[in-house]
Amino acid sequence: MAKASLIMIAIAVLVTCLSSLASAAEPPHYTVQGQVYCDTCRVGFQTRLSEAIEGAVARLTCRNRTTGEVTLSEPGQTDESGYYNIHVDSNHEEEICEVTLDSSEREDCNEVLPDWYKARILLANNSISGVTDNYRYPNTLGFMIKKALPGCAQVLAELGFLPLN
Ligand SMILES: *[C@@H]1O[C@H](CO)[C@@H](O)[C@H](O)[C@H]1NC(C)=O
Ligand SMILES: *[C@@H]1O[C@H](CO)[C@@H](O)[C@H](O)[C@H]1NC(C)=O
Protein backbone atom coordinates (compact mmCIF):
# COMPACT_ATOMS: atom_id res chain seq x y z
CA MET A 1 0.00 0.00 0.00
CA ALA A 2 2.67 2.51 1.12
CA LYS A 3 4.96 1.31 -1.63
CA ALA A 4 2.23 1.78 -4.25
CA SER A 5 1.59 5.37 -3.17
CA LEU A 6 5.33 6.12 -3.21
CA ILE A 7 5.45 4.92 -6.79
CA MET A 8 2.45 7.11 -7.60
CA ILE A 9 4.23 10.13 -6.09
CA ALA A 10 7.38 9.31 -8.04
CA ILE A 11 5.39 9.16 -11.26
CA ALA A 12 3.61 12.42 -10.47
CA VAL A 13 6.95 14.16 -9.81
CA LEU A 14 8.39 12.77 -13.02
CA VAL A 15 5.39 13.91 -15.08
CA THR A 16 5.60 17.40 -13.54
CA CYS A 17 9.33 17.62 -14.35
CA LEU A 18 8.83 16.45 -17.91
CA SER A 19 5.94 18.83 -18.58
CA SER A 20 7.87 21.82 -17.21
CA LEU A 21 10.79 20.87 -19.47
CA ALA A 22 8.40 20.71 -22.39
CA SER A 23 6.86 24.10 -21.62
CA ALA A 24 10.31 25.72 -21.27
CA ALA A 25 11.10 24.66 -24.84
CA GLU A 26 7.80 25.94 -26.26
CA PRO A 27 7.63 29.34 -27.91
CA PRO A 28 6.17 32.03 -25.65
CA HIS A 29 2.45 32.80 -25.76
CA TYR A 30 1.33 36.34 -25.16
CA THR A 31 -2.00 38.08 -25.22
CA VAL A 32 -1.77 41.76 -25.96
CA GLN A 33 -4.86 43.40 -24.47
CA GLY A 34 -5.72 47.04 -24.85
CA GLN A 35 -8.61 49.43 -25.15
CA VAL A 36 -9.69 51.85 -27.87
CA TYR A 37 -11.60 55.03 -27.06
CA CYS A 38 -13.36 57.78 -28.87
CA ASP A 39 -11.89 61.07 -27.72
CA THR A 40 -15.20 62.94 -27.58
CA CYS A 41 -13.54 66.17 -26.42
CA ARG A 42 -10.79 66.34 -29.07
CA VAL A 43 -8.10 66.77 -26.44
CA GLY A 44 -5.78 63.84 -27.15
CA PHE A 45 -6.24 62.04 -23.87
CA GLN A 46 -8.89 60.09 -22.02
CA THR A 47 -11.55 62.04 -20.13
CA ARG A 48 -14.66 60.92 -18.26
CA LEU A 49 -16.62 61.59 -21.46
CA SER A 50 -14.46 59.32 -23.60
CA GLU A 51 -16.41 56.41 -25.07
CA ALA A 52 -15.19 52.88 -25.75
CA ILE A 53 -15.37 52.00 -29.44
CA GLU A 54 -16.74 48.64 -30.50
CA GLY A 55 -15.53 47.16 -33.79
CA ALA A 56 -12.36 49.23 -34.02
CA VAL A 57 -9.30 47.45 -35.37
CA ALA A 58 -5.93 47.72 -33.67
CA ARG A 59 -2.85 46.10 -35.15
CA LEU A 60 0.20 44.67 -33.48
CA THR A 61 3.34 45.07 -35.58
CA CYS A 62 6.82 43.82 -34.71
CA ARG A 63 9.97 44.80 -36.57
CA ASN A 64 13.55 43.68 -36.65
CA ARG A 65 15.54 46.27 -34.70
CA THR A 66 18.33 46.54 -37.29
CA THR A 67 16.66 45.90 -40.64
CA GLY A 68 13.18 47.23 -39.84
CA GLU A 69 11.70 44.16 -41.54
CA VAL A 70 8.14 43.41 -40.37
CA THR A 71 8.08 40.05 -38.59
CA LEU A 72 4.54 40.18 -37.25
CA SER A 73 1.40 42.06 -38.27
CA GLU A 74 -1.68 40.90 -36.44
CA PRO A 75 -5.03 42.70 -36.20
CA GLY A 76 -7.48 42.60 -33.31
CA GLN A 77 -11.04 43.90 -33.17
CA THR A 78 -12.55 45.58 -30.15
CA ASP A 79 -15.57 44.23 -28.28
CA GLU A 80 -18.45 46.30 -26.89
CA SER A 81 -16.21 47.56 -24.06
CA GLY A 82 -13.53 48.68 -26.49
CA TYR A 83 -11.13 45.84 -25.64
CA TYR A 84 -9.10 43.93 -28.19
CA ASN A 85 -7.03 40.80 -27.62
CA ILE A 86 -4.19 39.90 -29.96
CA HIS A 87 -2.56 36.52 -29.44
CA VAL A 88 1.12 36.02 -30.16
CA ASP A 89 2.80 32.63 -30.12
CA SER A 90 6.14 33.39 -31.68
CA ASN A 91 9.24 34.99 -30.22
CA HIS A 92 9.59 38.75 -30.72
CA GLU A 93 11.68 39.45 -27.66
CA GLU A 94 14.52 41.18 -29.51
CA GLU A 95 12.23 43.24 -31.73
CA ILE A 96 10.40 46.53 -31.67
CA CYS A 97 6.67 45.92 -31.28
CA GLU A 98 3.85 48.43 -31.21
CA VAL A 99 0.09 48.59 -31.47
CA THR A 100 -1.42 51.08 -33.89
CA LEU A 101 -4.97 51.94 -34.88
CA ASP A 102 -6.21 50.57 -38.20
CA SER A 103 -9.86 51.58 -38.38
CA SER A 104 -12.86 52.74 -36.42
CA GLU A 105 -16.43 51.60 -36.92
CA ARG A 106 -17.67 55.04 -35.96
CA GLU A 107 -18.12 57.41 -38.87
CA ASP A 108 -18.23 60.37 -36.50
CA CYS A 109 -15.10 59.28 -34.65
CA ASN A 110 -12.37 58.01 -36.95
CA GLU A 111 -9.71 60.72 -36.97
CA VAL A 112 -6.31 59.56 -35.82
CA LEU A 113 -4.36 61.62 -33.32
CA PRO A 114 -0.62 61.97 -33.89
CA ASP A 115 0.23 61.20 -30.28
CA TRP A 116 -2.50 58.74 -29.48
CA TYR A 117 -2.58 56.19 -32.26
CA LYS A 118 0.32 53.99 -31.30
CA ALA A 119 1.69 52.34 -28.19
CA ARG A 120 4.95 50.49 -27.70
CA ILE A 121 4.79 47.05 -26.16
CA LEU A 122 7.50 44.69 -24.96
CA LEU A 123 6.94 41.02 -25.75
CA ALA A 124 9.47 39.60 -23.32
CA ASN A 125 9.16 37.45 -20.21
CA ASN A 126 8.96 39.65 -17.18
CA SER A 127 8.48 36.94 -14.60
CA ILE A 128 7.94 38.40 -11.14
CA SER A 129 9.04 35.95 -8.44
CA GLY A 130 8.69 33.02 -10.80
CA VAL A 131 5.15 33.82 -11.91
CA THR A 132 4.94 34.64 -15.60
CA ASP A 133 1.99 36.76 -16.62
CA ASN A 134 1.32 36.28 -20.31
CA TYR A 135 -0.82 39.38 -20.71
CA ARG A 136 0.76 42.55 -22.05
CA TYR A 137 -1.10 45.83 -21.68
CA PRO A 138 -0.23 48.68 -24.03
CA ASN A 139 -1.53 52.18 -23.32
CA THR A 140 -5.06 52.95 -24.43
CA LEU A 141 -5.49 54.32 -27.93
CA GLY A 142 -8.03 56.78 -29.24
CA PHE A 143 -9.74 58.14 -32.30
CA MET A 144 -10.87 61.74 -32.27
CA ILE A 145 -14.50 62.72 -32.70
CA LYS A 146 -15.37 65.22 -35.47
CA LYS A 147 -17.27 67.57 -33.16
CA ALA A 148 -16.61 67.81 -29.42
CA LEU A 149 -19.54 67.00 -27.11
CA PRO A 150 -21.29 69.93 -25.34
CA GLY A 151 -20.14 68.68 -21.92
CA CYS A 152 -16.46 69.00 -22.78
CA ALA A 153 -16.00 72.59 -21.62
CA GLN A 154 -17.14 71.48 -18.16
CA VAL A 155 -14.82 68.47 -18.21
CA LEU A 156 -11.83 70.58 -19.21
CA ALA A 157 -12.67 73.12 -16.52
CA GLU A 158 -12.71 70.30 -13.95
CA LEU A 159 -9.28 69.29 -15.17
CA GLY A 160 -8.08 72.87 -14.78
CA PHE A 161 -7.61 73.57 -18.46
CA LEU A 162 -10.14 76.39 -18.92
CA PRO A 163 -11.82 78.95 -16.68
CA LEU A 164 -15.33 77.86 -15.67
CA ASN A 165 -17.17 81.00 -16.82
C1 LIG B 1 11.45 33.76 -22.38
O1 LIG B 1 10.76 32.55 -22.57
C2 LIG B 1 11.15 31.85 -23.70
C3 LIG B 1 10.29 30.61 -23.81
O2 LIG B 1 10.01 30.06 -22.56
C4 LIG B 1 12.63 31.52 -23.63
O3 LIG B 1 13.03 30.89 -24.81
C5 LIG B 1 13.45 32.79 -23.44
O4 LIG B 1 14.79 32.49 -23.27
C6 LIG B 1 12.92 33.56 -22.25
N1 LIG B 1 13.61 34.83 -22.15
C7 LIG B 1 14.05 35.33 -21.00
C8 LIG B 1 14.71 36.66 -21.08
O5 LIG B 1 13.92 34.75 -19.93
C1 LIG C 1 17.37 41.01 -37.84
O1 LIG C 1 17.75 40.80 -39.18
C2 LIG C 1 19.09 40.42 -39.34
C3 LIG C 1 19.37 40.33 -40.83
O2 LIG C 1 18.42 39.54 -41.49
C4 LIG C 1 19.31 39.09 -38.63
O3 LIG C 1 20.67 38.70 -38.76
C5 LIG C 1 18.97 39.24 -37.17
O4 LIG C 1 19.08 38.00 -36.51
C6 LIG C 1 17.56 39.76 -37.02
N1 LIG C 1 17.31 40.03 -35.62
C7 LIG C 1 16.37 39.44 -34.92
C8 LIG C 1 16.25 39.85 -33.51
O5 LIG C 1 15.63 38.61 -35.42
Automatic annotation (TrEMBL):
One of its GO terms (cellular component) is extracellular space. Residues 1-24 form the signal peptide. The keyword Signal applies. Pfam families: Pollen_Ole_e_1. InterPro entries: Allergen_Ole_e_I_CS, Pollen_Ole_e1_allergen. Keywords: Disulfide bond, Signal. Belongs to the Ole e I family. This is Pollen Ole e 1 allergen/extensin. It comes from Corchorus capsularis.
